[in-house]
Protein backbone atom coordinates (compact mmCIF):
# COMPACT_ATOMS: atom_id res chain seq x y z
CA UNK A 1 0.00 0.00 0.00
CA UNK A 2 1.17 3.51 -0.77
CA UNK A 3 -1.46 5.37 1.23
CA UNK A 4 1.22 6.39 3.77
CA UNK A 5 3.51 7.91 1.11
CA UNK A 6 3.50 11.67 0.61
CA UNK A 7 2.74 12.54 -3.00
CA UNK A 8 3.34 15.32 -5.51
CA UNK A 9 2.35 15.76 -9.12
CA UNK A 10 3.48 17.98 -11.98
CA UNK A 11 1.02 16.99 -14.68
CA UNK A 12 -2.77 17.05 -14.46
CA UNK A 13 -5.06 18.85 -16.93
CA UNK A 14 -7.65 20.49 -14.69
CA UNK A 15 -10.63 20.03 -17.01
CA UNK A 16 -9.49 16.43 -17.40
CA UNK A 17 -9.74 16.01 -13.62
CA UNK A 18 -13.50 16.61 -13.47
CA UNK A 19 -15.23 13.54 -12.05
CA UNK A 20 -18.10 12.31 -14.27
CA UNK A 21 -20.60 12.99 -11.46
CA UNK A 22 -19.51 16.64 -11.34
CA UNK A 23 -19.66 16.88 -15.14
CA UNK A 24 -23.23 15.53 -15.02
CA UNK A 25 -24.15 18.14 -12.40
CA UNK A 26 -22.68 20.85 -14.64
CA UNK A 27 -24.62 19.49 -17.63
CA UNK A 28 -27.83 19.75 -15.61
CA UNK A 29 -26.89 23.26 -14.48
CA UNK A 30 -26.46 24.47 -18.06
CA UNK A 31 -29.09 22.20 -19.58
CA UNK A 32 -26.62 20.44 -21.88
CA UNK A 33 -27.21 16.97 -23.31
CA UNK A 34 -24.16 14.80 -22.55
CA UNK A 35 -25.67 11.62 -23.98
CA UNK A 36 -22.93 9.44 -25.44
CA UNK A 37 -20.24 11.28 -23.47
CA UNK A 38 -20.83 9.76 -20.03
CA UNK A 39 -22.19 6.27 -19.55
CA UNK A 40 -22.47 4.29 -16.32
CA UNK A 41 -20.54 7.00 -14.49
CA UNK A 42 -17.58 6.91 -16.89
CA UNK A 43 -16.43 9.02 -19.83
CA UNK A 44 -16.91 7.41 -23.22
CA UNK A 45 -14.18 7.67 -25.86
CA UNK A 46 -12.21 5.27 -28.03
CA UNK A 47 -8.95 6.55 -29.54
CA UNK A 48 -6.81 9.60 -28.71
CA UNK A 49 -8.46 12.02 -31.17
CA UNK A 50 -11.83 10.94 -29.81
CA UNK A 51 -10.57 11.44 -26.25
CA UNK A 52 -9.58 15.03 -27.13
CA UNK A 53 -13.11 15.71 -28.47
CA UNK A 54 -14.70 14.21 -25.36
CA UNK A 55 -12.30 16.25 -23.20
CA UNK A 56 -13.28 19.49 -24.97
CA UNK A 57 -16.99 18.81 -24.59
CA UNK A 58 -16.61 18.07 -20.88
CA UNK A 59 -14.46 21.19 -20.47
CA UNK A 60 -17.29 23.16 -22.09
CA UNK A 61 -19.52 22.33 -19.11
CA UNK A 62 -17.41 24.61 -16.87
CA UNK A 63 -18.36 28.16 -17.72
CA UNK A 64 -18.06 30.54 -14.79
CA UNK A 65 -15.35 31.70 -12.42
CA UNK A 66 -17.21 29.85 -9.65
CA UNK A 67 -17.34 26.62 -11.70
CA UNK A 68 -13.55 26.72 -12.04
CA UNK A 69 -12.98 27.60 -8.40
CA UNK A 70 -15.14 24.65 -7.32
CA UNK A 71 -13.41 22.27 -9.78
CA UNK A 72 -9.89 23.17 -8.62
CA UNK A 73 -10.83 23.16 -4.95
CA UNK A 74 -12.54 19.74 -5.16
CA UNK A 75 -9.64 18.22 -7.10
CA UNK A 76 -6.93 19.53 -4.78
CA UNK A 77 -8.78 18.72 -1.55
CA UNK A 78 -9.20 15.11 -2.74
CA UNK A 79 -5.48 15.00 -3.62
CA UNK A 80 -4.58 16.31 -0.16
CA UNK A 81 -6.77 13.66 1.45
CA UNK A 82 -4.64 11.07 -0.39
CA UNK A 83 -1.44 12.53 1.09
CA UNK A 84 -0.51 14.96 -1.68
CA UNK A 85 1.48 18.04 -0.71
CA UNK A 86 1.92 19.65 -4.14
CA UNK A 87 0.11 19.74 -7.48
CA UNK A 88 0.65 21.63 -10.71
CA UNK A 89 -2.53 21.86 -12.73
CA UNK A 90 -2.36 22.42 -16.47
CA UNK A 91 -4.76 25.20 -17.41
CA UNK A 92 -5.98 26.51 -20.75
CA UNK A 93 -6.78 30.21 -21.11
CA UNK A 94 -7.78 29.43 -24.71
CA UNK A 95 -10.58 27.38 -23.27
CA UNK A 96 -11.60 30.24 -20.98
CA UNK A 97 -11.85 32.44 -24.06
CA UNK A 98 -13.70 29.81 -26.12
CA UNK A 99 -16.49 29.53 -23.55
CA UNK A 100 -16.79 33.32 -23.39
CA UNK A 101 -15.62 33.62 -19.79
CA UNK A 102 -12.30 35.22 -20.68
CA UNK A 103 -8.82 34.13 -19.75
CA UNK A 104 -8.44 36.43 -16.73
CA UNK A 105 -11.66 35.30 -15.04
CA UNK A 106 -10.83 31.67 -15.87
CA UNK A 107 -7.47 31.97 -14.08
CA UNK A 108 -9.01 33.96 -11.23
CA UNK A 109 -11.53 31.18 -10.61
CA UNK A 110 -8.92 28.42 -10.70
CA UNK A 111 -6.59 30.48 -8.51
CA UNK A 112 -9.38 30.98 -5.94
CA UNK A 113 -9.93 27.21 -5.90
CA UNK A 114 -6.21 26.58 -5.32
CA UNK A 115 -6.17 29.10 -2.45
CA UNK A 116 -9.31 27.60 -0.90
CA UNK A 117 -7.83 24.09 -1.04
CA UNK A 118 -4.60 25.34 0.53
CA UNK A 119 -6.57 27.04 3.34
CA UNK A 120 -8.47 23.81 4.02
CA UNK A 121 -5.65 21.26 3.71
CA UNK A 122 -2.26 22.93 3.29
CA UNK A 123 -1.78 21.54 -0.25
CA UNK A 124 0.31 23.82 -2.45
CA UNK A 125 -0.74 24.38 -6.06
CA UNK A 126 0.47 26.17 -9.17
CA UNK A 127 -0.91 26.68 -12.68
CA UNK A 128 0.89 25.81 -15.91
CA UNK A 129 -0.59 27.54 -18.95
CA UNK A 130 -0.88 25.20 -21.88
CA UNK A 131 -0.60 26.10 -25.53
CA UNK A 132 -2.86 23.92 -27.64
CA UNK A 133 -1.07 22.27 -30.49
CA UNK A 134 -4.04 21.70 -32.77
CA UNK A 135 -5.00 25.39 -32.56
CA UNK A 136 -1.77 26.11 -34.44
CA UNK A 137 1.44 28.10 -33.90
CA UNK A 138 -0.08 31.58 -34.29
CA UNK A 139 -2.64 31.03 -31.54
CA UNK A 140 0.12 29.44 -29.44
CA UNK A 141 2.17 32.63 -29.78
CA UNK A 142 -0.80 34.75 -28.70
CA UNK A 143 -1.32 32.53 -25.67
CA UNK A 144 2.40 32.60 -24.85
CA UNK A 145 2.31 36.41 -24.99
CA UNK A 146 -0.63 36.32 -22.57
CA UNK A 147 1.24 33.93 -20.25
CA UNK A 148 4.28 36.21 -20.43
CA UNK A 149 2.25 39.02 -18.86
CA UNK A 150 2.13 36.82 -15.73
CA UNK A 151 -1.67 37.06 -15.60
CA UNK A 152 -1.94 35.39 -12.16
CA UNK A 153 0.63 34.97 -9.35
CA UNK A 154 0.08 31.19 -9.32
CA UNK A 155 0.93 30.84 -13.04
CA UNK A 156 4.54 29.66 -13.10
CA UNK A 157 5.04 27.66 -16.28
CA UNK A 158 4.12 26.86 -19.86
CA UNK A 159 3.27 23.58 -21.61
CA UNK A 160 2.12 22.45 -25.06
CA UNK A 161 -0.63 19.82 -25.21
CA UNK A 162 -3.24 18.63 -27.68
CA UNK A 163 -2.89 16.61 -30.88
CA UNK A 164 0.80 15.68 -30.93
CA UNK A 165 0.62 14.51 -34.52
CA UNK A 166 -0.26 18.01 -35.78
CA UNK A 167 2.47 20.55 -36.57
CA UNK A 168 6.14 20.21 -35.67
CA UNK A 169 7.85 21.25 -32.46
CA UNK A 170 9.82 23.83 -34.46
CA UNK A 171 6.54 25.58 -35.31
CA UNK A 172 6.20 26.45 -31.61
CA UNK A 173 9.77 27.66 -31.07
CA UNK A 174 8.73 31.33 -31.07
CA UNK A 175 5.98 30.73 -28.51
CA UNK A 176 8.51 29.01 -26.26
CA UNK A 177 11.03 31.83 -26.75
CA UNK A 178 8.36 34.25 -25.51
CA UNK A 179 7.68 32.08 -22.45
CA UNK A 180 11.39 31.60 -21.70
CA UNK A 181 12.03 35.35 -21.90
CA UNK A 182 9.28 35.78 -19.29
CA UNK A 183 11.12 33.31 -17.02
CA UNK A 184 8.23 30.84 -17.03
CA UNK A 185 9.06 27.20 -16.27
CA UNK A 186 9.26 25.21 -19.50
CA UNK A 187 7.66 21.83 -20.15
CA UNK A 188 6.14 20.27 -23.27
CA UNK A 189 4.08 17.21 -24.22
CA UNK A 190 6.22 14.91 -26.38
CA UNK A 191 6.81 11.22 -26.80
CA UNK A 192 3.22 10.24 -26.02
CA UNK A 193 1.30 9.81 -29.30
CA UNK A 194 4.41 10.63 -31.35
CA UNK A 195 7.69 8.74 -31.14
CA UNK A 196 11.25 9.41 -30.03
CA UNK A 197 11.81 12.04 -32.73
CA UNK A 198 9.23 14.28 -31.03
CA UNK A 199 11.19 14.02 -27.78
CA UNK A 200 14.46 14.79 -29.57
CA UNK A 201 12.85 17.83 -31.22
CA UNK A 202 11.44 18.98 -27.87
CA UNK A 203 14.84 18.60 -26.23
CA UNK A 204 16.84 20.43 -28.85
CA UNK A 205 14.38 23.10 -29.99
CA UNK A 206 12.53 23.96 -26.76
CA UNK A 207 15.26 23.08 -24.21
CA UNK A 208 12.73 22.23 -21.46
CA UNK A 209 13.62 21.36 -17.88
CA UNK A 210 10.79 18.79 -17.99
CA UNK A 211 8.91 16.80 -20.61
CA UNK A 212 5.26 15.79 -20.26
CA UNK A 213 5.34 12.01 -20.86
CA UNK A 214 8.55 11.66 -22.92
CA UNK A 215 8.22 7.91 -22.44
CA UNK A 216 8.57 7.02 -26.11
CA UNK A 217 12.16 8.21 -25.88
CA UNK A 218 12.66 4.54 -24.98
CA UNK A 219 12.56 3.81 -28.74
CA UNK A 220 16.00 5.47 -29.06
CA UNK A 221 18.67 4.44 -26.51
CA UNK A 222 20.92 7.33 -27.54
CA UNK A 223 18.15 9.78 -26.77
CA UNK A 224 17.50 8.16 -23.39
CA UNK A 225 21.18 8.69 -22.56
CA UNK A 226 20.91 12.31 -23.67
CA UNK A 227 17.85 12.89 -21.45
CA UNK A 228 19.66 11.34 -18.50
CA UNK A 229 22.77 13.43 -19.15
CA UNK A 230 20.71 16.63 -19.43
CA UNK A 231 18.78 15.83 -16.22
CA UNK A 232 15.47 16.54 -17.92
CA UNK A 233 12.58 15.43 -15.70
CA UNK A 234 9.98 13.15 -17.27
CA UNK A 235 6.40 13.66 -16.09
CA UNK A 236 5.31 10.08 -16.66
CA UNK A 237 1.64 9.06 -16.56
CA UNK A 238 1.59 5.25 -16.80
CA UNK A 239 -2.19 4.80 -16.36
CA UNK A 240 -2.87 7.34 -19.09
CA UNK A 241 -0.40 5.60 -21.41
CA UNK A 242 -2.07 2.23 -20.91
CA UNK A 243 -5.59 3.67 -21.34
CA UNK A 244 -4.56 5.37 -24.61
CA UNK A 245 -2.75 2.26 -25.87
CA UNK A 246 0.69 3.88 -25.98
CA UNK A 247 1.97 0.64 -24.36
CA UNK A 248 0.03 -2.62 -24.18
CA UNK A 249 0.46 -3.22 -20.43
CA UNK A 250 2.12 -1.95 -17.28
CA UNK A 251 4.71 -4.72 -17.72
CA UNK A 252 5.60 -3.17 -21.08
CA UNK A 253 5.72 0.39 -19.71
CA UNK A 254 9.25 1.89 -19.81
CA UNK A 255 9.15 3.74 -16.46
CA UNK A 256 11.61 1.37 -14.82
CA UNK A 257 13.88 1.18 -17.86
CA UNK A 258 14.03 4.98 -18.07
CA UNK A 259 14.75 5.28 -14.35
CA UNK A 260 17.43 2.56 -14.56
CA UNK A 261 19.02 4.41 -17.49
CA UNK A 262 19.44 7.44 -15.21
CA UNK A 263 16.47 9.50 -16.33
CA UNK A 264 14.74 11.60 -13.68
CA UNK A 265 11.14 10.38 -13.46
CA UNK A 266 7.95 11.41 -11.64
CA UNK A 267 4.42 9.96 -11.27
CA UNK A 268 1.40 11.85 -12.58
CA UNK A 269 -2.29 11.33 -13.35
CA UNK A 270 -2.78 13.36 -16.61
CA UNK A 271 -6.62 13.29 -16.93
CA UNK A 272 -7.48 10.93 -14.07
CA UNK A 273 -11.18 10.04 -14.48
CA UNK A 274 -10.83 9.82 -18.27
CA UNK A 275 -8.23 7.11 -17.75
CA UNK A 276 -9.81 5.45 -14.73
CA UNK A 277 -6.99 6.54 -12.50
CA UNK A 278 -5.94 8.98 -9.77
CA UNK A 279 -2.60 10.13 -8.47
CA UNK A 280 -2.99 7.72 -5.54
CA UNK A 281 -3.62 4.90 -8.01
CA UNK A 282 -0.52 5.81 -10.04
CA UNK A 283 1.51 5.51 -6.83
CA UNK A 284 -0.19 2.20 -6.07
CA UNK A 285 0.55 0.86 -9.56
CA UNK A 286 4.19 1.92 -9.26
CA UNK A 287 4.36 -0.10 -6.06
CA UNK A 288 2.10 -3.11 -6.50
CA UNK A 289 2.32 -3.63 -10.27
CA UNK A 290 5.69 -2.19 -11.27
CA UNK A 291 7.42 -3.32 -8.09
CA UNK A 292 9.07 -0.08 -6.99
CA UNK A 293 10.04 0.02 -3.30
CA UNK A 294 8.73 2.85 -1.11
CA UNK A 295 12.16 4.50 -1.12
CA UNK A 296 12.24 4.45 -4.93
CA UNK A 297 8.79 6.04 -5.08
CA UNK A 298 9.83 8.64 -2.51
CA UNK A 299 12.77 9.46 -4.77
CA UNK A 300 10.31 10.18 -7.61
CA UNK A 301 8.33 12.49 -5.30
CA UNK A 302 11.58 14.27 -4.37
CA UNK A 303 12.32 14.66 -8.07
CA UNK A 304 8.88 16.24 -8.55
CA UNK A 305 9.51 18.76 -5.77
CA UNK A 306 12.98 19.42 -7.13
CA UNK A 307 11.54 20.10 -10.61
CA UNK A 308 8.43 21.99 -9.45
CA UNK A 309 7.94 25.46 -10.90
CA UNK A 310 7.99 27.23 -7.52
CA UNK A 311 10.16 29.78 -5.75
CA UNK A 312 12.96 28.42 -3.57
CA UNK A 313 11.23 29.27 -0.27
CA UNK A 314 8.23 27.18 -1.31
CA UNK A 315 10.49 24.36 -2.53
CA UNK A 316 12.27 24.26 0.85
CA UNK A 317 8.89 24.17 2.63
CA UNK A 318 7.74 21.31 0.39
CA UNK A 319 10.92 19.31 1.07
CA UNK A 320 10.39 19.89 4.80
CA UNK A 321 6.79 18.64 4.46
CA UNK A 322 8.02 15.59 2.56
CA UNK A 323 10.55 14.78 5.28
CA UNK A 324 8.22 15.52 8.22
N1 LIG B 1 -4.88 17.29 -23.31
C1 LIG B 1 -5.45 16.71 -22.28
N2 LIG B 1 -4.89 15.52 -22.03
C2 LIG B 1 -3.91 15.34 -22.93
C3 LIG B 1 -2.94 14.34 -23.19
N3 LIG B 1 -2.88 13.23 -22.46
N4 LIG B 1 -2.12 14.51 -24.24
C4 LIG B 1 -2.19 15.61 -24.98
N5 LIG B 1 -3.05 16.59 -24.77
C5 LIG B 1 -3.90 16.46 -23.76
ZN1 LIG C 1 -1.05 15.62 -20.45
Descriptive report:
This protein is of the alpha/beta class. It has one domain (7-19, 65-323): Metal-dependent hydrolases (TIM Barrel, Alpha-Beta Barrel). It contains 14 helices and 11 strands. It has helices at residues 20-29, 48-59, 65-81, 93-98, 103-121, 137-148, 173-181, 196-206, 221-230, 238-243, 255-260, 279-289, 294-307, 312-323; strands spanning 7-13, 38-39, 42-43, 84-91, 124-132, 155-161, 185-186, 189-190, 210-213, 233-236, 264-267. It has a 5-stranded parallel β-sheet, with helices on both faces. α9 (221-230) links the parallel β9 (210-213) and β10 (233-236). It binds adenine and zinc ion. Residues 13, 16, 55, 161-162, 189, 192, 240, 270-271 line the site of adenine.
Radius of gyration: 18 Å
The stretches of 5 or more residues where confidence is low (pLDDT under 50) are none
Q: Give a short account of the largest sheet.
A: 5 strands, parallel
Question: Under CATH, the topology is which?
Answer: TIM Barrel
Q: Helical stretch count?
A: 14
What is the strand tally? 11
User: How many discrete structural domains?
Assistant: 1
Amino acid sequence: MTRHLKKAELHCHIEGAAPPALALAQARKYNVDVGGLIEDGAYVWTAFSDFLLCYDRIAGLFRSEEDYAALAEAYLVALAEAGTIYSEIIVSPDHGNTIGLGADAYLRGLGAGIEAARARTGIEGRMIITLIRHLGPEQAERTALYAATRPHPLVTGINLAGEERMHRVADFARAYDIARDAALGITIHAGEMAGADSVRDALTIVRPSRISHGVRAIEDPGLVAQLAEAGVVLETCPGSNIALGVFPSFDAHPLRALRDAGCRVTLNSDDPPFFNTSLAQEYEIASAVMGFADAEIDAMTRTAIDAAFVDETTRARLFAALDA
